[in-house]
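ZP: hey, is the flavin-adenine dinucleotide complex queued? I don't see it on the tracker
AM: it wasn't, my bad. submitting now with these inputs:
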Amino acid sequence: MAKVLVFIDNPGSALKKSSLELLTLARSLGDSAVAVNGDVSDAVAASFAEYGASAVLRPSAQDLDEYLVAPKVTFLAAAAESTGAAIVLLDNSPEGKEIAARLGIRLGAGVITDVVSVDSDGSAHKAVLAGSYNTTCKAKTPVSILTIKANNVVPEPAAAHSTPEQGTVDVPAAGAVPAARVTAREQKVASGRPDLTDARIVVAGGRGMDGNFGPVEELADALGAAVGASRAATDAGWISHDAQVGQTGKTVSPQLYISAGISGAIQQKAGMQTSKVIVAVNKDAESPVFEIADFGIVGDVFDVLPQATAEIKKR
Ligand code: FAD
């Protein structure tokens, strides 16, 4: 049975849905272990057991967070070696991808990013060239490192489980090795909305919102969704750059993506076309966005979105 190692960084008080997805995927591929950095609450420890991890490894040093990603790579490399992992799974965040790339060098392992599913033989499926092709790829190296896009696996607890073995991986204190250090962290203003890359529903607005994201935000709040945007909207300063979806923004894969006043340029598609259901609202019936939409509404966003919000609020 293949050994599969999942990296979870700073789980906080409870595991995020994307972490549960990684644990579920790992279990489907073999004997899964977790390498976790940061504090592990009782709820997180219970989730590791519930999702079938056979071992939980933590670093001996506690200062990894103060030094960007390099010390986390050292920890993960040591954890991969000690578990004999054939597959290492990370989330598809920018940091997850950076760790994956550095770990690939460290272990001489192939790295595949933006993965949406993995077969039992370790073959990974992903879209390439801004979503023009779906490919199946497999690393030729003994160890493969995969970063997994959120919302592509249904999180499921294991049918039977037991308490995972606890272990510590010896790593040098990060401060002992010369490295770039984090000197300050800026607290994000909490919006109360789900994280864009993790959200089950995303409502995204584009240039068609003409500087007024109110209707997008109201619909998002009625649906419990995250707010996304095209680059035209973020470049115009109508919404934060954090909300940009696309080739140079975030990649999302929600159950439902509502695109409002967005034309569907290839760079926007690259970040959202693996969404399960795409609903597009655009006043131009010829807009390319309708080529990828499952449901299309030809209409003005300032009519359609408030009507949708009002209907949802009635339920
Ligand atoms: P437009 O293309 O101007 O489309 C606006 C749409 O709104 C039109 O279809 C119009 O019919 C519709 N509309 C207007 N008014 C209304 C109304 N009242 N009601 C309904 N519909 C209305 N773009 C991204 O999104 N993400 C990226 O990550 C990204 N990266 C890029 C990287 C590179 C290297 C380059 C070159 C470009 C990148 N772009 C990216 C930009 C991309 O090419 C497009 O320019 C951008 O996506 C267009 O945004 P938009 O669809 O909001 O605007």
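AM: back. The radius of gyration is 21 Å.
ZP: great, adding it to the tracker
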